[in-house]
Structure formats: structure tokens, C-alpha cells
Amino acid sequence: MNILFVSPEVSPLVRTGGLGDVVGSLPIALKNLNLDVRILCPLHRCCKTRDVTYFEDTFQIGGRKRLLHAKLAETRLPESEVPVYFLENDFLYDRPGIYADNQGDYRDNPSRVFGLCESAMFIESITGWRPDVFHAHDWMAAPVCAFLNARDTGKGKQASVLTIHNLEHQGKGTYEDFVGSGLPPDYWGSSFDRFGEMNLLKSGIQHADKITTVSPTYAQEIRTEEFGHGLEESLKYRGADLVGILNGIDQDSWNPQFDNSLASPIDPQDPSAGKKACKIDLLREMNLPIQSEVPLFGVVSRLYKQKGLDLLLEILSALLNETKAQFVILGSGSKTEENAFLNIAKEFPDRLAAFIGFDDALARRIFAGTDFFIMPSRFEPCGLAQQYAMRYGSVPICRKTGGLADTVQPVGKSQNSANGFLFERSEPEALLEVINKAIHLFHNRKLYAEVQKNALNFPCSWECAAEEYREVYSWALSGS
What we know:
The chain has 19 helices and 20 strands. The chain has 480 residues and is of the alpha/beta class. The relative contact order is 0.11.
């Protein structure tokens, strides 16, 4: 099978988060199953330093609103043979950010979306390679499914699959934006319209042959009013075609035995020496007292409501007053949350270090140096950070939602496989209770070591997910 990924980002060429990581890793695992997978992504400004080879032919995108000349350039994912086709049109994509700048979201994002999705229809004529399945990722690629259904090539079936990485982000616009797409007018009422507003993600839900989300639990949650963000009825309607497939991680990139960011390698079978060295190194880097016998908690996160770090803020001073635990925070986002963590760090300089921003190497050292990793998300489609933390021997403390519920086996439920802690209520008191349980576990060194080892050896490769995606592609093509 020939599979074309259509995505606004692909790691490590261009990324803002988990979407880019998935699009940069899953194709490699699929290629190992003998699928011919290629990726279509806009040539963003940040990608222009890459070595690329241009195709000679140009084509026009822009539907009825504005015809723009575009062309394709080809490169490869680093250390793989997976081709990446960059869509070049400077008017649409040569910008400081992928989705937004300092002024907020780009107002013409709908035009940028339609340009990317329409260009997928030119892949065969420009490259000579014919996709069997168009795999669209999130709202910025969702209309690919509509563009595919709007054309009839007479060359045999091509199918579409939509993966919803985060239902909260849907891509909104106006009826005038839709008219500019050039899609059939009746698509407005049947798939793009939601209460008079254009909804790009809804169009993919309505038009895709199959729909996936990034964890089994999230696939169930998004059919409810609590997690459906207004699209739960559409998702219930397509329920027979909706499948949850748990994301993996790139285990070569995230390997604590060979990670040059760390002070010491960590052996999953005998982690004690490596974890101790990494903990001491992290405490020293954060200017915290070196106390190996005290539990060290870490956070690596964006700071906004979904991630639930406001729950931690409400109990953090009490924890620092009543326990000896230490904390390291790395994150950015809400200025209110940023300032709150910084102020508590000033109040407890020997107990809390807060770093505002993002630093990949520091994130890895936090995963490796901490004893516990806190991730109290209100919702979490899959979550990669808890998998990175487990891979590096930091026992996760997570809310029971989405992919967190699918990856964390809670202490107390099955001691043989327990690899972390889960709490149900999105309330400060519930988080405080589970953190205190973690502190209690830490002081039972034998039991903690067993839980930590389970975390370190939790299977999180892309191999199982790739097999499931291959099956979904076959279903999409067969119409079953």
C-alpha cells in the first residue's frame, strides 16, 4: 500500500508538539511493515535551511478565491528513507510561525489549510507516485478527505483516514472561507457547517473513510458531551468507523542508555546507579540541595488549563511546608501560572526550581533525574510526556483520562505490573492525596524499585501501533 501523510508539521523538520512527533515516527514504523509511506507538509520558513530537490512542474491552488502558483520539493526524514514532500508557496507558508505569530492565529489559516489539502490531489501528477490512502492529521489537514471525495479520477478507489490528535483544536472559519475552497457547494451543509460557522475538523469526520484517535480511551471519551467539544454527535454518528490507537514513541531517540544529554546512562534492568547520578546532576544544575533520600518530582509541560498544573499550584506551598519533597518545573504558557511557579520558587529556593521556556536537553535530564513525574491533565488524547518519563525511570502521577489511563497501571491495582499512579477527580485535593501516596511509596525502597522498573520496561514502541494502522488502511480501502 502507498500511504500519504498530510500534516502541518513533521518532526524533526518542523514541530510544535506531539502531532509533529507522531508524523515523524509512525511512517518509519509503517515502512518496516513494507508500506510505502510519504509525507506532505508545507515548506514553512523554519524548513528553508533543509537540502531539498525541486520538481520541475508547478500547479495552481486556491480554489475560487485566489489562484496561487505552488511547487513541490522533496527531502527525507533524517536517518530514514521516508520521503517528505514540501509544498512551497511563500504567500501562504513563509511566516514566522506555523499557525500563529505574536498577534495570534493567522486570519487566513482556512486558506492555508485548503492550499495544503488541495495540493495533496496533485501528488500523483507531479511525482508519478499514486497514494492508495490519504492519511490526514488534525484540523489543518482534515479537508483532504473532502477534496478526495469531490473528485472522480476513474482510476480506482483511493481512501482517506483522519487522525484526531486533539479534538479541542478544530479550525474555525466563515462561509466565505468555505466558498473560497472551490469544493462543491453542497458540502457546506453536509459537512463544513456547524451552527453557521465553518468547522474544518468536522469536515474530515464527515468525509473520512475511517477515523482514528491517539488512544483507545480517548476514542470513547470524545463521544461524550464532557470531552466532545461540540462534535460528539458527529463522532457518535461515525462511531462504527472510529478507532483508538495508542501512540508510541521513538525508542531510538528516547533511549536513556545512549542519550548524550544525560550525566549517566540508565540501564532499564539495573537503573539505580544511573538514576542516582542523573538525580545528583539535575539537583546541581537547578541549584537545589543534593538530597538523594528525598523524593524529587518533575514537571515538563505547557502551562495552560488542559494540562491541569493549576491544580498543583493550589497545593504546592502546602506540600513544600509539610514534606521534604523537592520539585523541578519546566514549562511555559499562561503568564499567571508562569509567575506563580516563579514566586513559589523564590519562597522555597531549596525545594523548588522553576525554568520558564522549553529546552529539549533539560527536559530529558528532568525525566532522567526525577523520581516522579506529575501530569494532572484535565484531558489528554494520548500523552507522550508520561511515556518519555517512564522510559527514563520517572514514575508517572497522572489523571485517569485518555492515553494516560491507557499507559499507566496504577499502584494498588496490580502490583506485578504497576508503573505509576492515577487519580480520578480533577481537583487539588485528589492530586495532593496521590502525591502523598507517591512519597510514601518512595520510602519503601524495595516496592518503589519494582514500580520504577515496571515503568522503565513499559512497551512503548511504534511497532504495535503500526500494525493497527495497517489494518485500518485495509479497512478504509475495502470499505468494511
